[in-house]
Amino acid sequence: MTAQTQKTATAADVSAAKVRRFPRSIVLSSLAAVLAVCGLWSLTRGAVDTSARDVLASFTDEGFTGGQKLKSIVVREIRLPRLVTGLLVGAALTLSGSLLQGLFRNPLADPALIGVSSGGAMGAVVAIIALPAILSNLAIPESLAGPINWFGLPFLAMGGAIGLTFIVYRVSLVRGRTHVPAMLLTGIAINAIGSAFVGLFVTIYANDEQLRTITFWTLGSLSGANWSNTLALTAFILIPAAFALRQDSALNTFLLGETEAFHLGVNVQRVKRAVILISAIMVGATVAYCGIIGFVGLVVPHMIRTALGPDHRMLIPAGALLGAITLITADVFARTVLSPAELQIGILTAIIGGPFFLALLIRARGSGATSLGT
Amino acid sequence: MNSPASQTGVLEARDVTVRAGRKVLIEDINFTLKPGALDVIVGPNGAGKSTLLKALTGENQPDAGTVTLDGKALGEYNSVELATRRACLPQSSTLSFPFTIREVVSIGRHPHRESDTATREAVEHSLNKVGLLSRIDEGYLHLSGGEKQRVHLARILAQLEEPEGRILLLDEPTASLDLTFQQLVFSIAEEWASSGASVLLVLHDLNQAMRYAKSVTVLHRGRVVRQGPPSEVLTRKLLRDVYEVNARWIDTDEHRLLAVDGPEK
Amino acid sequence: MNYKIISDNGFKFVVAALAIITYSAQTKSEASESPRIVTVGGAATEIVFALGSGDSVVATDLSSIYPPEARKLPMVGYVRSVSPEGILSMEPDLVIATGAFGPPTARQMMERLDVKTLWLPDLKSPNDLKLSITKVAEELGDPALAKPLIQVVDFDLNEAATRAEVWSESIPSVLFLIEPPGPTKSGMGGGVDSSADTLIKLAGGTNAVTNFSGFKPVSVESLVAMNPNVILVGQSDNHGGSPESIQAMIENPALAGVDAIATGSVHIVPLDDLSFGPRLGKAALRWNSLIGEAIDSAAE
Asked: Is the pLDDT of residue C25 over 60?
């Protein structure tokens, strides 16, 4: 009987609706190859004129003088840490976007849009302005205050991001389902609170230098990349990223609903907490060192879903690779367009990502909002 | 893994009570589902069917009493192990991401740590059962409601892999679906029960309960009113007491059909 | 009396200028290949140009708006957000930067890189300026160049102080605004410890602001409470108070009782008076005479 059902059902539309999926191994190895090429290319691009040969020479040889010495310094001390930072930040933002979208069961959950990044920025502002003041009030010796300030920035940024993610999740979850308008409105509210909070701190406490440093959070940039920051960022991102890669199958079950995820043997509360922690830590770390870079976590997962499908076993690793490629490429433009000055990469991603987000909303409206999970 | 002897597939609720705040949702429920059984729970809206089902899946902890599988409380099971022993088909799904049919069914393989090849085989096997194998690579979102439900049936079959010693829970699986699919659900339920699975359906339609159930449990106001073979349980008196309707069964050549005369006066 | 002072001042300035011109002409003929200099920070740029090495400057930053020749050069970004690679791409032999150079990571980067960099303080006082002039002159190869330039600055500052002595009975209170307060938004004023505060004092006035430091919002009501004798509004090409917003402040009925507005002592000053470059003395004199006008008109 089942065989008959099968025949009658398929007669009408056999291949019309067939969806092509590419094998994971081929997709991931191609993306890795593109990333490698892209990374090497980015080392040759910048205000200082360098050829591929110069880049190669700066790694293989020592003891140059004059022009090649300058190029070697630029490649090794400026562009390479920046490349690594871009790679990490692009992957981290895309991973957090993918994770949060899986958790919220909604493709619009971008870390910057729903307020996670604002939480990170609030924490960062506290670290920049309040922390030094508190430490000097408590008469903490300079030798101790220095490291506290240095660690305070990423940890307060991560703390802010984690707190805000929990708030957004609590507010936008209505009877076990994400209420999308609530999620986006919470994001608006939190972004407003965030900018007011930053404004308040700036007005009351900031000196001119702090003011400039804070302006930097609102539109991110990779220009602060140097080896010590890059190494710290590597630790803060690689560890949660390794956990993120292991959540792929569990996140697939989440898309069915939390009840179904439980039936499938997923420890729902634990995965939920893990996802929130992982994504908030990664976003917080990127905000601490590079400021708020919006829309990457929205656009890149969307591109992967459109081209390769929503399966997290593909989305998570492929998204991390494509996110890295995207940010590296965007940064090359950011640092060459206005050469010898620089454009902030956050401006670039907002210019490209903003209209993309609008197009998503408009298309979702046209198709009865099914793709937005409402 | 446990020895096959301990994995017989007996799901038992003993004196189960669930409250929401001070309100009692179900009280002192005793219920046993055995291998080979095809049992049905019926009851009017608000009788506590969904609450009981949640207690039986382990999703909700009872406030009093225990739910055990093969003598061991559900809470003591490793969540992955439990997922390979019992599966639940929800009334409807809100999946809104552009998966293919294959991918949705593959999600059912989550508890099984296995190779891609093994997943592919299990997915194809269960899609063949529900008659969707040839459409395996189509987009899930474009399917009709009935077709989507069939995909989810295939998903939970893939989750359990085989009938023996497994618990299959179906929550109003035929509600508002076409006749072909209703037929398919019951034939699969019967096939699994006869192969050693313990099958439980929550149903609205008393005709279906009468036709397919080996045992019917009637819930009313959070309590079990009666339990037993459908022809003995679903009497005119019970329908009047529980559903507050005047109704009688009409026997045809093969079936008994329910005729509702009107509300009880 | 006025005439004499100005001519004396002018004389000294001409001497200094001649000395500089003669000297720079010499150095140029001696060294056939002049160093490539990148200046970051308005004061750094001005000092290098004032010392006669403007031709060697190959790039500056966005805050370097004087002299006009400096604005035609490539920009390596704003002084607070500089791109180190942008600086390197200009292949400089020498980078001269003020303490405003940032972000901090860019400064760390510059310190690690193998580029000769002269770090000046973040210029906020005449002493910062004099120190900077001396350091730059030394770096450019002739410490003697610094002296005449410093003398001009000192002369102007002394002049402003001398002229202000007659106000010692009641020192006029001065409010400096980057942005006048309007009906819809607060203005922005210079508090104690701000660069505006320092320049007001150099010009012989006293800051009307006593209760906040740095640059902070100033509302219409707090302006009434301050009741300054003089209001100076800073302005540059694209920053500072627009003529419309200044007019709106003057016509605001709530502010009619404010002394500066009642006596017509609201003036526009160039925003880069606060750069504390070699024109600091000129800025102090400009502010001094604007304050003096206010006293005269109040007396009438």
From this structure: no
Please return the burial class of A110, using the count of CB atoms within 10 Å of its CB with bins 0-12, 13-18 and 19+.
buried
Task: Find all residues with CB under 8 Å of C190, minimum gap 6, and list them.
Answer: C175, C176, C177, C178, C196, C197, C200, C207, C209, C215
What H or E segment, with its residue span, contains residue A250? helix A248-256
**Interchain CB distance below 8 Å, A21 and B57:** no
Q: What local confidence, expressed as pLDDT, does residue A83 receive? A: 96
Of A190, A120, A129, which Cα lies nearest the Cα of A157? Answer: A120
When CB atoms are compared, the residue of A20, A262, A310 closest to B98 is A310
Contacts of A213 in chain C (CB under 8 A): 102-104
C in contact with B (at least 3 C-beta pairs within 8 A): no
ipTM score: 0.93
Write the secondary structure of C216-261 as one string of H (helix), E (strand) and C (coil): EEECHHHHHHHCCCEEEEEECCCCECCHHHHHHHHHCHHHCCCHHH
Instruction: Compute the distance between CA of residue A258 and CA of residue A235 in angstroms, rounded to an integer.
Output: 31
The one-letter code for the residue type at A113 is: L
Q: Which of A259, A263, A372 sits opposite B83 (nearest CB)?
A: A263
Is C81's CB within 8 Å of A226's CB?
A: no
Could you give the CA distance from residue B198 to residue A245 in angstroms, rounded to a whole number?
Answer: 36
Distances (CA, A) of A284 to A109, A165, A296, C104, C294: 16, 11, 15, 20, 54
Reported as a pLDDT band with limits 50, 70 and 90, residue A63 is low
Highest mean pLDDT (candidates B100-109, C111-120, C228-237): B100-109
Nearest CB partner across the interface for C80, out of A207, A212, A340: A212
pLDDT at B39 over 70: yes
Average pLDDT, chain B: 91
Of A47, A73, A208, the CB nearest to C89: A47
Angle subtended at Cα A120 by Cα A118 and Cα A123, rounded to the nearest 5 degrees: 110
User: Taking the model in full, what pTM does it have?
Assistant: 0.84
- CB-count exposure of residue A227 (10 Å: 0-12, 13-18, 19+): middle
Strand order in the sheet with C37-40: C57-59, C37-40, C94-97, C117-119
Question: Do C104 and A73 make contact, defined as CB atoms within 8 angstroms?
Answer: no
β-pairing, C206-207 vs A177-178, is: unpaired
Residue A325 Cα, gap to closest chain C Cα (Å): 22
Judge contact between A130 and A205, C-beta under 8 A.
yes
The pLDDT value given to residue A254:
93
Q: Are C and A neighbours with ≥3 CB pairs closer than 8 A?
A: yes
Report the chain A residue with the minimal C-alpha distance to residue B81. Answer: A265
Average pLDDT over residues C240-254: 87
**Closest to C289 (Cα-Cα) out of C178, C198, C166, C163:** C163
Chain A residues inside the 8 Å CB shell of C74? 340
Does the distance separating the beta carbons of A341 and C83 come in below 8 Å?
Answer: yes
Interface probe, candidates A264, A303, A306, chain B, greatest B C-beta count within 10 A = A264
Torsion, Cα of A50, A54, A59, A62 (10° steps): -120
Using a CB-CB cut-off of 8 Å, the residues of chain A touching B160 are none
Confidence class of residue A125 from pLDDT cuts 50, 70 and 90?
confident
For the cut 60, the answer to whether the pLDDT of residue B155 exceeds it is yes
Say what the pLDDT of residue C30 is.
45
Q: What is the pLDDT of residues A166-181, one digit of tens each?
A: 888 888 877 666 677 7
Nearest to C65 by CA among C285, C215, C242, C238: C238
- Can you tell me the mean pLDDT for A266-291? 91
Closest Cα to residue A14, out of B105, B125, B132, B145? B132
- The 3-state DSSP class for residue C1 equals coil
How does strand C81-82 pair with strand C77-78? antiparallel
Distance CA A247, CA A253 (A): 10
